[in-house]
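Honest question from a wet-lab person: if I give you the sequences of every part of a complex, can you actually get the arrangement of the whole thing, not just the pieces? Trying it with mine:
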Amino acid sequence: MENDYPEPSPEEIDRLYSRLEKEARQGGYNLNSDGEFARGLVKGLLVNERRYGYQACPCRLAADDKIADLDIICPCYYRDADVTEFGACYCALYVSKAVLKGEQKLGSILERRPPKEERQKLQPQPEPQSKSLLSASVAEPRAGPGTLKLSVPVWRCLVCGYLCGRDGPPEICPICKAGKERFERFI
Amino acid sequence: MVSSYGCDFMNSEHVAGNDKGKIMLYALSTCIWCKKTRELLQSSAVAFDYIYVDLLKGEDRVQAIDEIKKYNPGTSFPTLVIDGKAIVGFREKEIKEALG
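Yes, you can. This is the full assembly:
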């Protein structure tokens, strides 16, 4: 059970921690104020980035397949619902304002991510290629003929729900920094 | 510390301590809640085995996941199995009660 990847350095951990903290604040989110705890999770993100090429949730088993794991790249698709219901996301890197202020205590959080078999049955993952995002779905508005007339399609960020009307999804979500592969065609 | 004693996996590590039954911790090396669970077991001075499933590859990983599924179909971590009964997540109170 040896880890064959070099340990992230304290400087690397601090750098990512500071960036995530700043981005969280700008987007109206909060990082866990327990610095040691949060840094431990940030280290896990860096380890997973080395292992898999993406920052998979440190508290979930990644499949080493970015498409299969799009939902658990941090911040995950389940963060907002868990922060609302439990005061923290699954790994507790992100917490609610009430938890931050000490008004709510953190408990064990149930796994919201459906098991693999159920995930495969759910709606198809968004296409990873910008080509298909830009061509195929633009031609097929989901609202159906005659219901809505839009000059451009509406894209929804699967992490934070940010909506924008434009030809294709943005490179990164301006709110939660999710990549464009984590957007769906909404309208 | 490293042995396959009393455990289903060649890859698991054994921590010596008081015998409180067969205790197996399925964990991830990057997970802080798994770390807390392991620390709780260590501070309770019980004998247990643990395995970091994220560090397993190929067949070993498949075998570990199949084993966890018997106790926890969602295959989430930490999954702590004490004498065949699973505690999923870092549930401090439940774990302490189960350890007696």
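Two things worth pointing out. The beta strands of chain B are 13-15, 23-27, 48-52, 79-82, 85-88. The radius of gyration of chain B is 12 Å.
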